[in-house]
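Re: [ENG-882] Designed sequences occasionally contain unexpected residues at chain ends

Forwarding the minimal case from QA. Structure tokens:
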């Protein structure tokens, strides 16, 4: 069996920026174990598989795999899948509807941006959290701790987020996935995302984390339109909107590679 594979740098405006994702279109679903093995072999933060739907409610089914496990939502790989459909496979509608573990996700183009319509996951403040949290983050001062799917830790400022040097060995013992965030200097907010429980110490750009970050900062800053940076080494830029029970994330994609998998 041979499968086409595409690699896209998502939430970046030039090669080697943003977050690389592998996109594999399928005629029908493979065995879950095999898809997980392919994701492990690719060794990217996400490999996304899509299957064309025969139902009128949505266009494709979509599933996301890290090297370690299948997850319930991924922004950058969804953007990468949409990029491949719009720009390489000549999908002829203006909006793509994906059926996923997190419900129906709609994606459309807006000039050179790809726009993701995702669920809004407002994190709630925690009074109790791991005593080791400050040590895990290298002794930084913590402003507040919140959670929806992932632990969200607010730090003092952009510099604290940028210079944070986590102890990943300690993090693996206590926390699977964690966001750190603070107000930005030239943007509304900045963040970084760590997911040692999913086999990724630091993810370059994380759309699903922004499902929590957008409602968090929208309420905190009193505004619905937000501009964000994820401060990984590769870096990523997102234009965001809080829209009721949904969030909108906009970003660019860059085509890096097409290949063929032989199984």
């Amino acid at each position: 069996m041979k499968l086409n594979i595409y690699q896209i740098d998502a939430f970046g405006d030039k090669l080697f920026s943003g977050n690389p994702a592998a996109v594999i279109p399928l005629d029908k679903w493979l065995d879950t174990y095999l898809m997980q093995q392919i994701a492990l072999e690719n060794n990217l933060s996400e490999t996304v598989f899509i299957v064309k739907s025969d139902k009128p409610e949505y266009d494709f089914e979509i599933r996301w795999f890290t090297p370690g496990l299948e997850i319930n939502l991924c922004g950058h790989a969804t953007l990468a899948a949409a990029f491949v459909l719009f720009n390489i496979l000549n999908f002829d509608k203006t909006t793509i509807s994906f059926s996923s573990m997190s419900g129906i996700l709609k994606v459309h183009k807006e000039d050179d941006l790809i726009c993701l319509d995702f669920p809004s996951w407002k994190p709630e403040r925690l009074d109790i959290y791991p005593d080791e949290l400050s040590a895990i983050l290298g002794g930084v001062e913590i402003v507040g701790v919140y959670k929806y799917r992932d632990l969200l830790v607010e730090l003092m400022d952009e510099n604290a987020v940028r210079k944070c040097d986590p102890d990943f060995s300690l993090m693996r013992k206590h926390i699977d996935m964690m966001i750190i965030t603070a107000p930005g200097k030239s943007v509304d907010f900045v963040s970084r995302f760590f997911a040692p429980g999913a086999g990724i110490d630091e993810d370059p750009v994380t759309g699903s984390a922004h499902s929590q970050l957008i409602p968090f900062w929208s309420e905190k800053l009193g505004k619905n339109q937000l501009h964000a940076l994820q401060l990984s080494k590769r870096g990523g830029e997102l234009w965001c909107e809080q829209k009721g029970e949904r969030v909108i994330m906009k970003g660019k994609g860059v085509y890096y590679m097409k290949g063929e998998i032989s199984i």
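QA comment: On inspection the terminal residues look reasonable. The mean pLDDT is 96. Proposing we downgrade this to a documentation issue.
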